[in-house]
Amino acid sequence: MLRQLTDEMLAGDVSELFVLGGDPVFDAPAELDFTKALRAVDFKLALAASANETSQACDWLVPHSHFLESWSDARAYNGVASTVQPLISPLYESLSEVELLALLIEDADSGYAAVRKTWSESLGENEDDARWQKALANGVIEDTKTKITTLSFNRVPNGPRSSSQETNGATPTPLNDQNSFEIIIKPDPTIWDGRFANNGWLQELPKPLSHVVWDNTAWIAPSDATRFHLKNGDVIRVEIGERTIEIPIWIVPGHAPACITLFAGYGRSVVGRVGAGTGVKVVSRFGASHGSQTAERKRIAKVVVVGRKQSVVTTQHHQLMEGRDLARAGSLMEYLQQPSNPLFAHPPSPVPDDSFYDDWPYKQSNKWGMTIDLTACVGCSACVIACQAENNIPVVGKEQCDKNRHMHWIRIDTYYEGPPDQPTHTLNQPVPCMQCEHAPCEVVCPVAATNHSDDGLNQMIYNRCVGTRYCSNNCPYKVRRFNFLDYSGEFISDPSLHLLSNPEVTMRSRGVMEKCTYCVQRIEHARIAAQLEDRAIRDGEIKTACQAVCPAQAIRFGDLNDLGSDVRRAHDHPLNYAMLEELGTKPRTTYLAEVFSREAELASPNRSSDSIAEQPTELSDDDEAAS
């Protein structure tokens, strides 16, 4: 479709062009030369949330409303229709796609009027019509489900392929050259196709597997890195015909050999101050002309080693567990053989019974705890972003991340099992504050800024903290973050950022230690509500931010003193274990060991990942990682 549109634009058949939310000047394949075609159009209008490459080339830029500000409608995959209602009034004078189209082709002066007109026949025209009110209340419109139709196809097994069946714009060639690589281009896992390039939260969100921030890299296999004598950050030149890019590499265990994965979305020339100067532009140079923008694309390219390095920042420098069984996993067969005490979840290791710490007397108070199910966790990092939004965690930038000063209160650690080229499994482990019963951080603070609350939280009193960082040095899990710079001042001085911060959470200034608090503001909100109603806090009434957003429901939170609570049952499960339990810290954040049903993938019974090569980047003294 894009090629057809471009051909029609070049032929002069398009006199007016409306671009609704896209950015084809940036991400259209270079072979289409969309920019040249756009110049041949007499009237060009772009609907965009901010200035981008396409809006710069158009005659008009219309501000695009956020989807939370707009009326619209939608259909689910099964055809069920729904009205899309705004959550807030528009902050600025802007338009949605529905409103712009309504102004052009419909007799409607707002998105709401357009939606009402669309559904007036089935839901009535009056505002108080019971059918319209019911649709708004239920969120779906009755009797709109698509009827299921059974289709049959006659397929020729070995027939010739038509041009429409081609999956990419280049003819595949055999990899008969040692410098030839198959190139796969995918949307970036955090900023997607570049539309979120100016979002600091997503730029600083560690990417899956590599944990790289503020950059895109070329993923290659360990065997290819060895063959070309490459290390992480070494720059290569990828050549497809006359089009080339230079990009740093990242070695990913398990990556296919003779193949390079590139990620689109970076290298934008028209973007805000956050996304400016980040990454390398990929799509418009190598993107194929067939398929959608988000589809996987393949090309054959030649790779040349440039001979220089580029600074690539990652938040996890070491992916060996060094025999400490941090993330534990086992097969379903192993679990069924010992369901009451699986060996992979509880390997033989001495756990001290005696301690210099006294047990905390909870009496009648709550004892908050958390359990994370590693079988359910997919390492998507939704919990990381949710925690950042909930707790006003600042974005510190690439330079500070390079000094190991990233501020996330929860991180996702990644480990591998097996040889680097063919690891048998990838392990993802979310790591927030462990909320230890015998917390090493509490006893070393000289001003009692970190202490144990009545309901078991290892809490921080920011006004007491003087920044000695003794607590961070004494934390074996490295989950405390020191605020080196004053990031809170910008929130106070810039009026446009006031709505960004959560008013229930204190803004932290320079020189204080921060960490996970089990979303104490949510705990207090539920406690006040229970006191007003003269009742106990119900199980499940409190959901932490990470728990609420987890798509796999891998996180359980609640009162460990409630023997019937979900988190108590998880703590009593045979798969439950505490990280570094041999240290005697008695964490109240525990894990359920991962269970696999694919027996062949488990190479060894000890769950060790010691055969994976260490990332070459060195740790700094400011903030070491636990692993």
Low-pLDDT windows of residues: 161-176, 289-296, 600-627
State the distance separating the first and last CA atoms: 49 Å
Count of helices? 20
Task: Bin the strand percentage.
Answer: 15-25%
Estimated structural class: alpha/beta
> Strand tally, please?
25
Could you tell me the CATH topology label of the largest domain.
Alpha-Beta Plaits
CATH architecture title of the largest domain: 2-Layer Sandwich
The CATH first-level class of the largest domain comes to Alpha Beta
Sheet having the most strands: 6 strands, mixed
Number of domains: 3
- The shape is globular
Q: Give me the Rg, rounded.
A: 28 Å
Query: What would the average pLDDT be, to the nearest integer?
Result: 84
Tell me the strand order in the biggest sheet.
8-10-9-12-6-11
Helix content: 10-25%
Topology, pairings included?
Blueprint: H1 2-10, E1 16-20, H2 24-27, H3 34-39, E2 43-48, H4 53-57, E3 60-63, E4 72-75, E5 81-84, H5 97-105, H6 111-118, H7 120-123, H8 130-138, E6 180-187, H9 200-203, E7 212-213, E8 218-220, H10 222-227, E9 234-240, E10 243-251, E11 259-264, H11 283-286, E12 297-309, E13 313-314, E14 329-331, H12 332-337, E15 368-373, H13 382-390, H14 398-402, E16 411-417, E17 425-431, H15 440-444, E18 450-452, E19 458-460, H16 470-474, E20 481-482, H17 488-493, E21 513-514, H18 520-532, H19 545-549, E22 555-559, H20 566-571, E23 576-577, E24 589-592, E25 594-596
Task: Write up this protein.
The chain folds into 3 domains: 137 residues, Rossmann fold (3-Layer(aba) Sandwich), CATH 3.40.50.740; 146 residues, Barwin-like endoglucanases, CATH 2.40.40; 193 residues, Alpha-Beta Plaits. It is globular and about 85 Å long. The protein is built from 20 helices and 25 strands. Strand 9 and strand 10 form a beta hairpin. The strands form 9 sheets. A 6-stranded mixed beta sheet has the order 8-10-9-12-6-11. The protein has a 4-stranded mixed beta sheet with strand order 22-15-24-23. The protein is 20% helix and 19% strand. By secondary structure, it is of the alpha/beta class. The two termini are 49 Å apart. This is 4Fe-4S ferredoxin-type domain-containing protein. InterPro entries: 4Fe4S_Fe-S-bd, Asp_de-COase-like_dom_sf. It comes from Novipirellula rosea.
